[in-house]
Write a structure and sequence with these properties.
Shape: globular
Number of domains: 3
CATH topology of the largest domain: Trna Endonuclease, Chain: A, domain 1
Strand content: 15-25%
Order of helices and strands: HHEEHEHHHEEHEEEEEEEHEEEH
Distance between the termini: 35 Å
Helix content: 25-40%
CATH architecture of the largest domain: 3-Layer(aba) Sandwich
Strand order of the largest sheet: 6-9-10-13-15-14
Radius of gyration: 26 Å
Structural class: alpha+beta
CATH class of the largest domain: Alpha Beta
Largest sheet: 6 strands, mixed
């Protein structure tokens, strides 16, 4: 899929910003509000604008510092002695001590990722001159911070706590850029590619969940819930259940005893073809059916499932609902290439269908 405002396919760039603002509430703060009024030709230009404002704000508060290990040869002891290094110095008639110590530094993985991302965006042709100028201004304050090889960043090892919580949204933007869009050319240089479906899928899922959490106050439960298997072995104990996979839903909505399980799907194709007949993708329908049936252990019929696909440019897209074994199972598409008010109305319509008209926060 192509993500450009100038194309007939894909997603409006501004809608990606709205989706991000639901996924990361910090984007609704005043220093980001002007972004919603801007037009962006490329998604990397949007990301550059967000980093411009976010990093500038972080500089006012001070860059995050953490203890990093150092190993130096010093005249006086600091930290603990590196025995092998000190012995080596003695052999070389060097009377100084090899010391190992921790130093509070801005040159840590969090700031290194920020610098690397901004460095790449400054050199990308899809970023407007205005955004590049802003990035260059903030990069001046990263002079003592190292650049990283994007492919070597271990994203799963970035953990957030009270002192660096402000970095969470910024580093997620960096992840979209460096892991989702950056490709290596034959000459070993980097260039920006189309926004990867894998990364867009995660944003799409989080956006829908947060949209309902923030806007539908009539719902008593909005979360990404795990569903327990409705199974017992012959002895009446759940001993065999450890061999079954975890059932992790994308979006679990509840109002009183009525439940809707939504599986958010972001694919290049929403249907499969079998003998030239378009049908729902088998694995998807089996998955949502399994979720619903195991949640509705008492067979009340009050648990429903919905496959919610991001709309593609296919001629035929699903918009259907079936009563399967007493439960409603449906599939439909969400058109992300429309004004955001229309997207909002589509999501509200889904909640209204299953729970009645949702109440929005003032």
């Amino acid at each position: 899929m192509v993500y450009s405002m100038t194309e007939d396919k894909g997603i409006f760039i501004k809608n990606i910003y709205y989706m991000l603002s639901y996924a990361f509430q910090v984007l609704k703060q005043s220093n980001y509000e002007s972004i919603a009024a801007e037009d962006f030709e490329n998604v990397q230009d949007l990301f550059a604008a967000i980093l411009n404002r976010g990093v500038a704000q972080q500089l006012k508060q001070g860059l995050y510092r953490e203890y990093v290990p150092r190993n130096e040869t010093l005249a006086a002891m600091r930290g603990k002695i590196d025995m092998s290094g000190t012995i080596r110095n003695r052999v070389q008639r060097n009377q100084k001590l090899a010391c190992e110590y921790d130093e509070l530094s801005e040159n840590n993985i969090f700031n290194q990722v920020l610098k690397t991302t901004m460095f790449c965006l400054v050199r990308d042709a899809g970023v407007a001159a205005k955004q590049k100028a802003g990035l260059k201004k903030v990069l001046v304050f990263f002079g003592d911070i190292d650049l990283l090889m994007p492919s070597k960043i271990q994203w799963n090892k970035l953990h957030y706590q009270r002192n660096n919580r402000n970095y969470e949204m910024l580093l997620n933007i960096c992840w979209f850029v460096l892991d989702g869009m950056l490709q290596t050319t034959e000459k070993g240089k980097y260039r920006m590619a189309a926004f990867a479906d894998e990364h867009m899928a995660r944003l799409y899922e989080k956006f829908i969940l947060e949209y309902y959490r923030q806007n539908c106050t009539c719902l008593s439960e909005v979360r990404a819930a795990q569903i327990k298997w409705d199974v017992r072995d012959e002895n009446g104990e759940n001993t065999a259940i450890r061999f079954l996979p975890v059932m992790q839903t994308d979006i679990f909505l509840r109002k009183d005893d009525v439940v809707l399980i939504i599986d958010a799907k972001y694919y290049g194709n929403t249907l499969q073809k079998r003998f030239d007949k378009p049908t729902l993708i088998s694995g998807n329908i089996y998955q949502i059916f399994t979720y619903v049936k195991n949640q509705d252990k008492n067979h009340t019929g009050k648990v429903s499932g919905l496959l919610l696909y991001a709309r593609t440019d296919e001629d035929i897209t699903p918009d259907c609902s079936f009563n399967i074994g007493g439960n409603q199972i449906g599939a439909r598409t969400l058109d992300l290439n429309k004004d955001f008010k229309i997207i909002s109305a589509q999501l509200d319509g889904i909640a209204e269908k299953y729970f009645g008209k949702p109440e929005k926060k003032l």
